[in-house]
Amino acid sequence: MTVGVVHGPERIESETEPTVAELCSIASGLAAALRREAVDLPDPDRRQWRRLISTGDFDAWVIHWPKGGSVDPHDHGGSFGAVSVVSGALTELRDGPVGRTTEQLRPGGAHEVPADAVHDIVNDGPSSAVSVHVYSPPLSTMVFYDADGHEVRSEAVEAERAVWPEVISSMAATA
């Protein structure tokens, strides 16, 4: 897989679409890098996120979850994804044909999120948590659902500037 990054408004396209395994690898790698570089972060009072990387085929986000924070049942508008926990612990709740499944997400490894999954992620741990989410194609829409599985609203994901291209560019300049 060839990876491109965003430099200003320009987007460098990659040659192939990433596989689920590659998305999981990207999420795990970014989480490990953030874990190594992490400093003590204040406990947020609300969920906060930043786009880390944006390419033509995937984007990566870091999300800081307050204790008790959640997102509400949602899908990713047809994008498949991978989640890797940097610190703390999260719980994924997913409704499917056999009922609700619950999976604990902890640091190390990555968790696959199929394109058709409707799920919620909750921080029911004793402290705040940080996670990395990678989506392909890049996240453009999130659809939210009520407790009965009926669509409540669809929200466009804002094209937020990626924060790691400057880091990558500065590393390349000093190599």
Q: What is the approximate shape?
A: globular
> What series of H and E elements makes up the topology?
EEHEEEEEEEEEEEH
Helix content: 10-25%
- Through-space gap between termini: 23 Å
* Fourth CATH level, the homologous superfamily: Jelly Rolls
Commentary on this structure:
The protein is α+β, with helices and mostly antiparallel strands and 175 residues long. It has a single domain, classed as Jelly Rolls. It contains two helices and 13 strands. It has a five-stranded antiparallel β-sheet, covered by helices on one side. Strands 5-12-13 form a three-stranded antiparallel β-sheet, with no helix packed on it. The model is unreliable at 1-13 (pLDDT under 50).
SSE blueprint and pairings:
Blueprint: E1 6-7, E2 10-11, H1 20-37, E3 48-54, E4 59-65, E5 74-75, E6 80-87, E7 90-96, E8 99-105, E9 111-113, E10 119-122, E11 129-136, E12 141-145, E13 151-156, H2 165-174
Antiparallel strand pairs: 1-2, 3-4, 4-11, 5-12, 6-9, 6-11, 7-8, 7-10, 12-13
Descriptive labels:
175 residues; alpha+beta; Jelly Rolls; five-stranded antiparallel β-sheet; three-stranded antiparallel β-sheet; 39% strand; disordered N terminus
